[in-house]
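agent: user wants the full assembly modeled, not chains individually. Plan: 1) parse entity lines 2) check alphabet per entity 3) run joint structure prediction 4) return tokens. Steps 1-2 passed, three entities, 741 residues total. Proceeding.
--- entities ---
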Amino acid sequence: MSFLRTLIPFDIAGGMKLTGRYFGKVFFSANRKKVRTEIKHFTQEYPEVAVRLQPRFRGRLTLLKDEQGEIKCVCCLACEKICPTQVITIEKGKKEGRKMPFPVRYDFEMERCIFCEFCVESCGFDSIILNHQFELAGYNREDFSLGMEGMAQNMFEPSPVGRHSVAED
Amino acid sequence: MEHQLETIGRNMFAIFGVMALCGAAFMVASKSAVHSVLGFLFAMLCVAGCFLSLDAEFLGMAQILVYAGGIVVLFLFVVMLVELSKFKEKGVFQLQTRSAVIAVIVGGVAFLAAFRNLLFGTASPEALVLRPELAQGLAVAQQNAQAVSRGLFSDFLLPFEILSVILLVALVGAVVLAKTERV
Amino acid sequence: MPIQAIPMTLTQTLVMGLLQIVVVLIAVFIMVPLLTFAERKVIGYIQVRLGATRLAGGHVGITGPMNRIMWSMGKVPMLSIVRGLPIFIADALKLITKEDIIPAKADRGVFTLAPIISVMAAFGVFAAVAYYPGVMFYLPKGFPIVGGLPFQGFITDVNVGLLFILGLASVGVYGIVLGAWASNSKYPLLGGLRSAAQIVSYEVPLTLSLLVPVLLAGSLNFKEMSILLATGKGLHPLAIIPLFIGFFVYLTCGFAETNRVPFDLPEAETELVAGFHTEYSGMKFGFFYLAEYANMIVVSALATAFFLGGHYLLPFGLQRFIPETVPFLGQPSFIFFLGKVCFILFVFLWVRATLPRYRYDQLMDVAWKYLLPLTLVNLFIAALIRFAF
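--- prediction returned ---
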């Protein structure tokens, strides 16, 4: 009986059926459909198509602004204190028509950042976030010193190297 | 062009024969056992070519299939496992040169004496069939394979079976030898 | 179809033969790289990947502008299936231009001879394969020496074509074994020994499974066999049973003979690095590669011709139900042959992506304990059908 079972390859047929089904599915979806709909394969065609990242992905640090376009940061220095590699330096200041303190300088030394997201967790005002930018290469050391608007590299513009990261949200 | 080609075609047997001899000479002369097997393989393929040049396609292909494809592979298999460096100093492979030469000379003389008439007398098709009056099948057959099978399984059935018994004897002898060595 | 013997002088025969050999060689040299590309793609799709896409699909290069436009329209670029196609040119260039290393302790002569034997055996087999059982086209009158003569779909019409194929295929094992021995290294030697044992073992059921069509057709001629088995003239309808079983046995043994997954023990990466070609590099390795893929094509062509109906539409002699008067489907065509060959090549890749490798004892079990009895029983059934009905 086991002789016959070995001889008639039901298991092989089952395996072939499974792989054949995947072949058909991927073959037709990969070559017929449009890019963003009904993709069955896991390969991401990265430079041409924007990458689908997990929502928890930790990219570059960004300062958020509220509806009026004001920076939400109130200079509580919680992020600066908790940062294990001490890449954040904040200088408190005042601004006309604003009760809360206003960061005159918010320096972020990305070359030492370990992307641990402690700063975001410690922030009580939801004013910073690690966005989904991952193309963070630079040509000079200075490219990694990020700051407020007005500096050569600031946190509100996308990284100069990559143009394909998902920067929104 | 045409003329030369015809000449080559007529002498195909001689060409293959000389090549087979070269292969055999290489096999005897080479120091390495694997090179010997290669020479043997070449000689076997050339013998197959000889058969082809005599219009015996089936025999030629059987030659390739059985000798080149089966037997020489087994030779190679064994030779590859033998550690050659051990035997090189002892000169096992070149030990029996004198007796081999004598055997070849005696064999050649005997062969020539036995087949003198066939080689230099009558035509080759009759030489292939040892007793033409027995071989009814050859006349009936249209194809080479049919001729061989009719020869083997109807006209010369008894010699064929006896030959296979002789092979069986050799097999049993090999088993017996191997067994006694182990005990 | 009746084929008249065309009177040709020896020179014309020679030139015609050379011409056909060149055509077949070019066809194989095109098919093998395409097959490697297909292998990347098919296995990629089965593993839910895309396979090779980068060589003609990027933003730069010759096809760059077209691709940019297509991407900006939100569509996968045209020629999407073949975006990685130039990879076969890259593969070939890499193999040709790589440094050719011969290990210091290797046996140089045999080391060089081994890939040559492999390739010669693999390509020699094509001499007896009939791609089309008749005249494909007539050469133009102005052609030198052979003008106006028919170009046939086979190189030679050997009376014992099947034996020729089997014999040359069995010579192919020397390439592997000698290459393994000449490398003078332990992994190749182990791979070569395994390969010799495996191929000699699987040759038995392979030959026996091919005896079924021989028995049913009563001939050893490739062309005659393929025509007779396809059209089913003079065959009992029950002959489909041994042919069907024989097809699967033959295909299994074909996998083993070509050292493909699941029988690729000679090159088992996990324990033998790369098996018999561990020490090979450059075009010598390329020759082994070429021989393997050429062998795959031969196995596919044989399975097609003897079991799947060859140049006719339906397999296993079912073609008899289509009358010959039907315009396209009832006639033999090269397209059917090519299509079936491609399908079996696809099955090769499909199986490679599905099955894991056999263990060595399982391998021998499959050959001697299962396939051999099965083929013997199958042969008996075929003989019964041939002579009892």
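agent: reporting back. The interface with chain C takes residues 1-2, 5-6, 9, 32, 34-35, 38, 41, 45, 48, 57-58, 61-62, 64-65, 68-70, 73-74, 76-77, 80-81, 143-145 of chain B (CB under 8 Å). The domain at 1-86 of chain B is CATH 1.20.120.1200 (Four Helix Bundle (Hemerythrin (Met), subunit A)).
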